[in-house]
TrEMBL record:
InterPro entries: Cro/C1-type_HTH, Lambda_DNA-bd_dom_sf, MLTR_LBD. SUPFAM superfamilies: lambda repressor-like DNA-binding domains. Residues 14-68 form the HTH cro/C1-type domain. One of its GO terms (molecular function) is DNA binding. It comes from Seongchinamella unica. This is XRE family transcriptional regulator.
Length: 278
């Protein structure tokens, strides 16, 4: 559950950064074309900031994208869209995510961005899911929804694949409404143009999501129909606004027999995939 931001958080953050940067209230007021009284009221919670004021303060105080978004969130404003970075540029982050994905085996898991683009995979994903969709199995750039909507995708084996797609589309729609990210808008429009997407996708998708995730019934080749739980978890603490937004998408089975079968399939196997964890 996301923690409620404590009352007065914005004022405390503003005072903290002002003092870190060794600026007086007068310095801040002059720079952002305000008054000392207003800055004082912002810090003690007697006045509420506008979004524009917050962005001007962040720029003057030299805040990074993360700190700017924390300042916005503390005043109940949506975060700014932070320029995406390549995971290859952060060796420590990549190593951490690799360990997480390996630890989730034998359950298929992937790191995706807020648009649903797949950034990293574990061996279980390649073995259990990827091999079932030959058209994108070796691709370096694909969206998690391609796994379902591709002509040879998982929809061929799922009893309720449209419900799952609808739920993913509703999740993406919320990202568009909140952040107006160009990539998210383009991606949403592309998938909504698919004729197989139900016209009532918004209602169906809203009814499918729960706090724990969403269920699907899949009959993978060589197996019987089984129920699977699809779970999305945000990478990082919910106490701050992460940059960029990365999520762990995992598919779990509640059948321990099936989990053990997956585990055995991974023993001694070697895989090659451009998105596979190190």
């Amino acid at each position: 559950m996301v923690e409620k931001i404590a009352e007065g958080a914005f004022g405390r953050l503003l005072r903290y950064w002002r003092q870190v940067r060794k600026r007086s209230q007068e310095d801040v007021a002059l720079e952002i074309d305000s008054s000392i009284k207003h800055i004082s009221f912002l810090e003690n919670g007697r006045s509420l900031p506008s979004r524009d004021i917050i962005l001007r303060l962040a720029k003057y105080l030299g805040l990074s994208g993360r700190e700017t978004n924390n300042l916005l969130a503390s005043a109940n404003y949506a975060p700014v869209n932070i320029e995406k970075f390549n995971l290859e540029d952060s060796a420590m982050l990549r190593a951490s995510l690799s360990n997480i994905l390996r630890g989730l085996e034998p359950y298929p898991s992937a790191i995706i961005d807020r648009t649903g683009n797949v950034r990293m995979l574990n061996r279980a994903w390649v073995e259990v899911i990827g091999k079932q969709v030959p058209s994108i199995h070796r691709q370096t750039h694909f969206n998690v929804m391609d796994m379902f909507l591709a002509p040879d995708g998982l929809k061929l084996y799922m009893e309720n694949w449209q419900d799952v797609i609808c739920a993913l589309l509703v999740t993406l729609q919320q990202e568009v409404l909140m952040f107006q990210d160009a990539d998210s808008i383009t991606t949403l429009q592309r998938y909504l143009a698919d004729p197989s997407v139900p016209s009532d996708w918004q209602i169906r998708g809203a009814n499918r999501m729960s706090m724990s995730g969403m269920y699907s019934r899949i009959n993978l080749p060589g197996d019987r129909p089984r129920d699977y739980l699809h779970v999305l978890n945000i990478v990082g603490s919910l106490r701050v606004v992460p940059d960029p937004v990365l999520m762990i998408y995992s598919i779990f089975t509640e059948d321990e027999e099936q989990a053990e079968a997956w585990r055995q399939r991974l023993i001694g196997s070697t895989y090659q995939h451009p998105l596979l964890v190190d």
